[in-house]
Amino acid sequence: MTMTPEEGVDSLFFGSVFQDPESVSKVLWLDEIQQAIDEANVDENRAKQWVTLVVDVNECLDRKQSEHILSVLKSSTSNVHDIIPECAIKYYDTLVKAKESKTDNVSSEGSWVKLNLQQKYNYYYNTDSKEGSWVPPETCLSKESWLTAEEIEDIIEEVTANYIRENMWSAPEELLLRFQATSSGPTLRKEFEARKSFLNDQVESVVKIQAFWKGCKQRQEYLSRQRVFTGNVDSIVKIQSWYRMAAARKSYLSRLQYFEDHKNEIVKIQSLLRANKARDDYKALVGSENPPLTVIRKFVYLLDQSDLDFQEELEVARLREEVVTKIRANQQLEKDLNLMDIKIGLLVKNRITLEDVISHSKKLNKKKGGEMETLNNTDNQGIKSLSKERRKTLETYQQLFYLLQTKPLYLAKLIFQMPQNKSTKFMDTVIFTLYNYASNQREEYLLLKLFKTALEEEIKSKVDQAQDIVTGNPTVIKMVVSFNRGARGQNTLRQLLAPVVKEIIEDKTLIINTNPVEVYKAWVNQLETQTGEASKLPYDVTTEQALTYPEVKNKLEASIENLRKVTDKVLSSITSSLDLLPYGLRYIAKVLKNSIREKFPDATEEELLKIVGNLLYYRYMNPAIVAPDGFDIIDMTAGGQINSDQRRNLGSVAKVLQHAASNKLFEGENEHLSSMNNYLSETYQEFRKYFQEACDVHEPEEKFNMDKYTDLVTVSKPVIYISIEEIINTHLLLLEHQDAIATEKGDLLNELLESLGEVPTVESFLGEGAVDPNDPNKENTLNQLSKTEISLSLTSKYDIKDGEAVDGRSLMIKLAVESTLQPQGIGSAARQGQLQPCTIDDQVVLNFLTKKLIIDVTRNQPGSTLTEILETPATEQQELEHAKDMESRASVDSRTPEEGKQSQAMMEDACLPLEQKKRKIQRNLRTLEQTGHVSSKNKYQDILNEIAKDIRNQRIHRKLRKAELSKLQQTLNALNKKAAFYEDQINYYDTYIKTCVDNLKRKNSRRSIKLDGKAEPKGTKRVKPVRYTAAKLHDKGVLLGIDDLQTNQFKNVTFDIIATEDVGIFDVRSKFLSVEMEKDLLQMQYEGVAVMKMFDKVKVNVNLLIYLLNKKFYGK
C-alpha cells in the first residue's frame, strides 16, 4: 500500500474523530486503517491525473498545437465520454480565449500549480522541476496564466452541453448514446424526453392539421389550372406545335453552326473517345474473365510475328550461344590457372621441374588464343551427317535431353544415385549445360524446378535432423550456391558487397586483430624492431596471460570498436539490398524453409530462420567477404593480392556476421570478445527480419509467367551447347541407374534409351575419317576431340502406339497431329507449350491448330460470338480479303529464317478458303468438346479465353525478350572482362616463367665457372662478407639457440652474411666443425613471426636479425 504521510495522518485523524462515540475503544481497527490508506491512494492518483490534465492542456495551448488538443483531453480527463471529437476545434478555441483572458491580468508569474481535493487537501506541483508535494512550499508563486483543472473541466462541460443541445433533434441513435454518456447527459436527456413526450401526446392533432392544410391548397391550385386549360384547348395545341417546331429548328441550326465552328475540337474529342474505347477494350482483354469476341478480334494482329521479332529471336539465340561458350571457356581457364598456381608452388618447393610448368603454360596460351573445339565446320559429319540412321540418333538425343530438361524428377533421382565426387562434377558440367546456365527465362524457370525437386528429394531421403542442413554439406544447396555465385550471380555479389569491401581494403589505417596472443606478439616484435634489443617479455603466452598487459587490452578494445563500425557498414549494405539478392536463391530459401517445416513440424521459427541464414549468408555471402579476390568481388591486377592485414580485417568482419546470422554468442575460447554479445543479439534481429523477407517471393510460374501454353508465341526451338564427352557420360549414367530413375516399364525415358541402344564412342560421334587409325597418339587425339561441342535443338517425342483404337475422337486428333508433326513441323509443335515434362498432349496440339484457324476466320468475318460466325456464310468480299491476308502472310513467311518458319501442313491450312476453314473449326470443336476441353453451352468461350491469354502472353514475351537481350549483353560484357583478366594472369605467368628460365641459365653459368676452378672474369668485384660468431650473435639477442649444442660451444660456429646483387636477398653460410650450410634470405619482411629456424637447427630472432641487416648493409 502507498500513501503520503500528510494524507495518511489526515485520514487516520478523521477516522478516529468520526468513530462511533459509544465505541468501547478509541483505537482504530485494521480495516479502518486500510480504508483510510485506500482513500489517500485514490486522492494521490486523482491529484496526479488532474496535474497531467492541467500541464498537458496548458502546454498544448502555449505551443498552439490545436491538432493535439483532442488526444490530450482524452488521455487526461476523468470522464472520456465528455470529450466529443466533433468539438475539438471548439474546445481549443474556447480554452485559448480563456487562457488569453487570464494571461492579460497576470503581473508576475510563478511555477507552482495548486490543486484542491475534496475541499480538504491542497496538492502543489512545480512545472519546472516536474515534482509534486502535499506540503506547501516555502515560496509558492502560482502560475497565474495557466488554466486550472476546474476551469478546464467547466469549459469542456459547457462546450459539450451546447453541442448536444444543437444536435439533439437531428442526431442518429448512435450519436444520442454518445451524448448520454457525457456528464451533461442526464440533464439534457430530461429536456429531450419532455419535448418528445409532448409531441407524442399530440401526434393525431398535428397530423390532422397538416393534412387538412396541404389538401386545401392543392385542390385550389388544381381546379384553377383545370378551368384555364378547358377553356383554351385549341390555342394550347397551336402554341405547343409552333413552339416545338421553332425550338427544334433553332436547336438544329445552332448545333450545325457549332460543329462548323469547332471542327478541330470535334476531331480531337472523337480521337480521344476512340482511344478510350480502345483502352477499355484492352482492359477487357486483360482483366475480364470472359473477354468478348468483338474485343479479341481487335487485338489478334498482335499475334503476328514481325521481322523485328525474328531478328530479336535470332539475336537472343546468338548471344545465348556466346554466353554459354564463354562461361565454359572461362571455367576451363580458371581451372587451368588454379593448376598453374599449384605447379608454380610445387616448382618453388622443388617438387616438379620447370619443364612441367612450361608445358602447362603452352596449353594455357593455346586456350587463350581461342582454340575452342566446335563442330561448325563438320555439320555434315558424324552424328550430324546426312544419313537416316544418324539423323534418327541425333533426334533421339534431342528428345532425350528435352525430356531431362523439362521433367526434373529424372535428374533429381540421378544426382542422388551417384557418389558425391561424381555428382559434383556432373552438376557443374552437364546440368548447368543442359539449362544453358539459365541464360533465358524459360531455362531459369526449368532449372529452379530442378533445384526445388532435388532439394525436396534430398530432405525427404537424406536429412534426419533439421540441423543436418547446417552441419552437413547438402548436394543441392552446394549446387544452388555454386550456380548463383557463377557467371550470372557474380554481378549481384559485386553490387551487394563490392563498395563496402573495397572501402575496408583501401583503408590503410584500419587494423582489426581480435586475437590477444597475436596482438601481444605484434607488440613485442614492434618493441624489438624499434630498439634493436631483445625483449625481456616471454614469446609464448596464453590468451589469459596476454590479456594481463594494458597495452594488449587497449589495442584489443580499439580493434573491437573498429570491428563494430566496419561490421555495421557491411550489415547495412546487405540488409538494404534485398532486391539485389537473386530471385532463384530467395526461392530456394523459401523451398528449404517450407520443406524443413513439413518434415519437422516441431521445428521453431528461429531454427528455420537459422537454416535459411546458413544458406543466404554463410554459404553465399560469407566466402565472398573473406576472399573477395577469389569471387571477383573486386578488381585485381595480374599478380596483385590482398595482404595479410586486409585479409584479417575481412575475416574478422565475416566472423562477427557469421555469429550474428546464427545467433551464436562469443563464449569459450572467444570469451575475450563477450563484450560484443549484445551487439550480436541486435544484429541477429536485423538478420532475422532480412531472412523472413527474403523468403517472401512469388512462385516461379507467377514470376516468369510460365504455363503449358507459354511456348506458343516463341519463334525458335530451345538449343543447348554440349560436348560429346558430356553426352556420352550422361548416356552412360542413365543406363547405369535406369532402374532407379525410371521404374515403370512404359516410361518415356526407357523408350528413348532403348531407341539409342549402347553408349556410342567418341569416334562414332565424329564420323569416319575424323581420326587417323594409324595415329600413334590416337587416344590423346580422341580425348581432345571429346571436348568438341555440338548444338542440339531440343524437341519432344510424340508417339502414337500401334493398334490404337480408331474412333472418331482419336482419328480427328491423329489427323491433326500428323498434319503438324512433319519433319519441319516437329520443331513448331515442340515449341507450342511444351513445358509439360513428358509427351505432347494431343488435346494441346489440336487446340493449337483450332485456335490458329479461328484467328484467321475472325480477322475477315465479324460477329458477336464464335457460333454466329461459324453459322453465317462468308460473303464474296470477305473471301477476297481473306485471300489477300493469306498471300501477305506467305510473303512474310518466305523472308523468315528456316528455324522460324511454320510447317508445310500449317501453311496449307492457311491457304484454305474461309468456308472450308470454318468447317474444319467445327469438326475440331466437336472433338475437343468430347474431351471436355470446350463447351457449346457457353458458345466455346473457353477457347476464346485461351486466344486472349495468348495475346497477353505475346506482349509479355516481347517485353521479357528485350529484357533478356539486355541481360545477355551485360553478362557477355562481364564474361569478356573476366576473360581479359585471365589473359592478363596468363601473361603474368609467362613473364614469371621467362624470368625463371633466365635466372636458371645465369645460375648454371656461374656454377660452371666455379666447378671448372677458373678464376672469375676480370673486373668482377667480390662483395666482402660480414662474419659473426654464434657467441656474438647470441650476445646481441639475434641467435636464441642451436639444437644439440651447448652455449659454451657457440664460439666454434661462424656465420658469413653476404649481400647479393639483388636488393634484400642475402646468402648466409654457417660453418660448424668444418661443415658448410647455405641459406638464402629472400626479401625478409615483418609478418609478426618472432622466431624462425635456419638450417633446421638454428633458432633466430627475426626482428633483431632484420635490425642487424638494416644496420650493417643499409645504414638504417
From TrEMBL:
InterPro entries: IQ_motif_EF-hand-BS (IPR000048), RasGAP_C (IPR000593), RasGAP_CS (IPR023152), RasGAP_dom (IPR001936), Rho_GTPase_activation_prot (IPR008936), WW_dom (IPR001202). One of its GO terms (cellular component) is cell cortex. Keywords: Coiled coil. GO terms for biological process: mitotic actomyosin contractile ring assembly actin filament organization. It comes from the Eukaryota. PROSITE patterns: IQ, RAS_GTPASE_ACTIV_1, RAS_GTPASE_ACTIV_2, WW_DOMAIN_1, WW_DOMAIN_2. One of its GO terms (molecular function) is calmodulin binding. This is Ras GTPase-activating-like protein IQGAP2. Residues 874-905 are annotated as: Disordered. It comes from Myodes glareolus (Bank vole). The keyword Nucleotide-binding does not apply. Residues 429-662 form the Ras-GAP domain. Residues 879-901 have a biased composition (Basic and acidic residues). Residues 958-985 form a coiled coil. Pfam families: IQ, RasGAP, RasGAP_C. Residues 106-139 form the WW domain.
